[in-house]
Design goal:
The chain is an alpha/beta fold. It is about 50% helix and about 15% strand.
């Protein structure tokens, strides 16, 4: 079977990382999170002129190695702009992997805010609501084939996501 590169996209606090982890467990596949790499780079005082770019590069390189071994890979990243999103189709062209994009939203703004504030209170390294609102303004509309999941809708999105990913 052709390996799958499953790319999760969406704003902080929408439930993207939770669903990505569940998909990674179910496939099974490693889950590579841009935020994790970015935090490690900052912890080691590695500063870059355009924050986040290096983390996307590291995740892309790690994903390429896994796909090269025939493994599925799950990417957990905001993917807010076309430049960041362009990485994944190019990677699939190089490796022969099938690309599956899952864009995650939380249409209930009050619930989204509650999640963001709870995450920030538990771990202040996570963005606060004001920072997420700024990211909303920068988030470019996604164009192209993808599965859109609203985590504020009733029901569990896992089976539908897995079915789409495996298709």
């Amino acid at each position: 079977m052709t390996p799958r590169l499953v790319v999760f996209a969406g704003l902080p606090g929408v439930g993207k990382s939770t669903l990505a982890a569940r998909v990674g467990t179910a496939l099974p596949a490693p889950v590579l999170a841009v935020d994790t790499i970015d935090r490690v780079l900052r912890a080691h005082e590695l500063v870059e002129p355009r924050p986040g770019v290096a983390a996307y590069g590291v995740v892309s390189a790690l994903a390429e190695a896994q796909l090269g071994m025939g493994l599925n890979v799950v990417i957990d990243a905001v993917n807010p702009v076309a430049a960041a999103r362009a990485t994944w189709p190019v990677l699939c062209e190089r490796t022969g992997a099938a690309l599956r994009i899952v864009e995650v939203w939380c249409a209930d703004m009050a619930e989204h805010r509650r999640r963001v504030e709870a995450r920030h209170a538990a771990a202040p390294v996570n963005p606060n609501w004001e920072q997420v609102v700024l990211r909303m303004a920068e988030y470019e509309p996604y164009v192209g084939r993808r599965l859109v999941v609203d985590t504020s809708a009733p029901g569990d999105p896992l089976e539908g996501a897995l079915s789409w990913i495996r298709d």
